[in-house]
Amino acid sequence: MENILRPLIVIGGSVVLTLLIGWVTDRLLRKADERHNETPLWGLLRRGRIPYQLVLCAAMLRGSYDEARLLDEHRVGIGRALTLVLIGAAAWLVVRIAAAVVETSYSRYARAHRDAARLRRVRTQVSLIMRVVSAVVGVVAVAAMLLTFPAMRAAGASLLASAGILGIVAGVAAQSTLSNMFAGLQIAFGDMVRLGDTVVVDGEWGTVEEITLTFLTVRTWDERRITMPVSYFTSKPFENWSRGTPQMTGIVYWHLDHTAPLDAMRERLRDILRECPAWDGRAHGLDVTDTTPNTMQVRALVTAKDADDIWTVRVTVREQMIRWLSAEHPYALPRVNTADALLPPGRSNGRSSHDGATSRRVHEPPRTGR
């Protein structure tokens, strides 16, 4: 009977005590969250209740397993398995706590500052910091797990002795990976590109959706995702439309006939912009920028508060101006001239008398005498 009750009490007591402590801790965090609504820390800490309970349960079972006297022949293997679970759960809990602290700090900063560009920069830095913390904690946890095996501890001395050679080999093999990691840190703290920025890369216009230590994802206007290494943004030029102020100036071109009414077009452009909510009212203009033998190029300048609105203004102006020209001034649209060609002075369309006489003589039938 003792062989049954002892492991049941030890294992069951550890599980019940773990659930009880986890429930009490969760209740305390919930009350703290309700009492302090100004900070999301306590609510975010509740996300770590599962790894927290795993740490408690693994620690209790690891400390009391010898008293259970269950499966003595596998005691070493079970103890090592519990140690591995404890290390993994502890690493998971550390990452959750760090994420809660970092997210709380960002929330306080976001409430204190209203600058969208600065908030995107801090958000990018916070995201990369969390990825670095997660990677470091993961590496330390894996190393601790490996050191629980005696064979790994015995091989430690030889590994340290050859660390210099291994470091050189690893550096050469992971050169691109390391360059991308350093480029990711440079992007985060150099304020080159941030989450939510509108960029143009390789002729594609889109928004930065995700930044990691090794790659960056751009979501295009047609909802495609372009993934590229972060080293691209530190080695090649690209357009960042969100850098500085988000205000933008857009251009609309038309190819029209030389008789197009430019003054009337300027008045019509002003009327179109006044009825367009996306126009920010800063500036507008219309000028002739180029000519060809058949047409002239007319350019309109418009402004808007950001990249999305400038696109709306441009397509609105282009469409309504063409519609107005077609209805009110159709002669202003491009057309192909079909007039007769004019000869230089001194030349006429008819033939000369000499040419005519020659022609008659050539074609006159021969006379015959009788």
Task: Provide a compact summary of the structure.
This protein is of the alpha+beta class. The protein is 59% helix and 15% strand. The chain starts with a helix and ends in a 7-residue tail after the last helix.
Question: In words, what does this structure look like?
Answer:
A hairpin with a 4-residue loop joins β3 (215-220) and β4. This protein has helices at 2-35, 41-45, 49-68, 75-112, 116-147, 150-161, 163-173, 175-190, 232-235, 262-274, 307-328, 353-363, and strands at residues 198-201, 204-211, 215-220, 225-229, 239-240, 248-256, 279-291, 296-304. α3 (49-68) runs antiparallel to α4 (75-112), α5 (116-147) runs antiparallel to α8 (175-190) and α10 packs across α11 (307-328). The chain has a 5-stranded antiparallel β-sheet. Strands 6-8-7 form a 3-stranded antiparallel β-sheet, covered by helices on one side. It is elongated. With 370 residues, it is of the alpha+beta class. The model is unreliable at 351-370 (pLDDT under 50). The protein contains 12 helices and 8 strands.
Task: Describe the secondary structure blueprint for this structure.
Layout: H1 2-35, H2 41-45, H3 49-68, H4 75-112, H5 116-147, H6 150-161, H7 163-173, H8 175-190, E1 198-201, E2 204-211, E3 215-220, E4 225-229, H9 232-235, E5 239-240, E6 248-256, H10 262-274, E7 279-291, E8 296-304, H11 307-328, H12 353-363
Antiparallel strand pairs: 1-2, 1-5, 2-3, 3-4, 6-8, 7-8
